[in-house]
Amino acid sequence: LTTPTAAPVVTAVALSLAPPAAGAVTLAPSQNEGLARLVLPTGAQLMGDHSIARYLAATTLAATNEFQRAQIEQWMDLALLYVADEAPFLALLEGALASTTYLGGTDSFSLADAAVAGAFQTYSVVPDAATMPNIARWYAMCSTEPVLAAAANLLASAGKGGKGAAAGPGGDDGASCPDLEGAVEGEVVTRFPPEPSGYLHIGHAKAVLLNEYYARRYKGKLLLRFDDTNPDKEKGEFEDNIRADLAALGVKPDIQSHSSDHFEKCQQLARKMIKDNLAFMDDSDKATIKQEREDRVNSKHHDQPVETAMDLFEKMLKGPLNHPLNNPSQLCLFCCH
């Protein structure tokens, strides 16, 4: 049996019923386990939709009495023990609802109803009014509950599309990702610029997930730009593998491009910098340039005439065979003042 990936509906309901609790805890994705994860300000964690909901209920949604709490947890357990369309479970549920409006011994919608209704949604079970009239009546009533709508909005705002983990209001995990100062919703653009000369490692994953997070949090865009400026090391195999890895991480770039797509623009900006006397051309060897930078000493070409710099820049673009020295190792470098 393959269990569908379920949204943490019960946790979302608990948060919707007790909004103050959302300010004290954070729900962040647990991608490896596919479970909701609750992280307390102390760093302590809980995993699993029902476990988190029980904690929230115990701390903010006290039942009328202990027996009522046990009844609520009974249905939460049953929703986990049975597949929602199994005959024994449906018979038990139909009988229980014959004498009560809601589950869990309460006179209003509770986490027990959320757990069972969530199981129905996970397995796409639609109660048959002819054979299960009590369940059909209850399920139709649950579907109109404002708290379920609020929970659905909470999950949607977390950007999980009904799968994965829930987050606090606004989709912010709060504990590890602070606000972006000055950020405007709809105007935030982040980018991930891997060089297609190898496979992604854990540092790449951290970087792209952070950029993905802020792009989605502020309803902005994530740009994937392959930094293909070193053709000696780059391969199409690496580029294809990077795309596959990003898909596995759940990252969906809004725009994909290559640095080489922008070479003409880079050349235009370089010419402008030279004309504005903000850049020059330097044919010093790498060791000399490095040492001069560390010593904060100007290059001997620092005060190069604009005309000379522009001439050398155009020759550099044409390639080493047209360089005055006809020597690749002596190619000039474009340097900023």
Secondary structure layout:
Elements: H1 9-17, E1 26-30, E2 35-39, E3 45-47, H2 49-60, H3 66-81, H4 87-96, H5 111-122, H6 133-142, H7 146-157, E4 189-192, H8 202-217, E5 221-226, H9 236-248, E6 255-258, H10 263-275, E7 279-282, H11 286-295, H12 306-318, E8 333-336
Parallel strand pairs: 4-5, 5-6
Antiparallel strand pairs: 1-2, 2-3, 7-8
Q: What does this entry look like structurally?
A:
The protein is mainly alpha-helical and 337 residues long. It is 43% helix and 10% strand. The protein is built from 12 helices and 8 strands. It has helices spanning 9-17, 49-60, 66-81, 87-96, 111-122, 133-142, 146-157, 202-217, 236-248, 263-275, 286-295, 306-318; strands at 26-30, 35-39, 45-47, 189-192, 221-226, 255-258, 279-282, 333-336. The strands form 3 sheets. The chain has a 3-stranded antiparallel beta sheet, with helices on one face. A 3-stranded parallel beta sheet has the order 4-5-6, covered by helices on one side. A two-stranded antiparallel sheet has the order 7-8. Strand 1 (26-30) and strand 2 (35-39) form a beta hairpin. Helix 1 runs antiparallel to helix 5, helix 1 (9-17) crosses helix 7 and helix 3 packs parallel to helix 5 (111-122). The protein is elongated, with a radius of gyration of 30 Å. The N and C termini lie far apart (66 Å). The model is unreliable at 1-5, 20-33, 160-175 and 321-331 (pLDDT under 50).
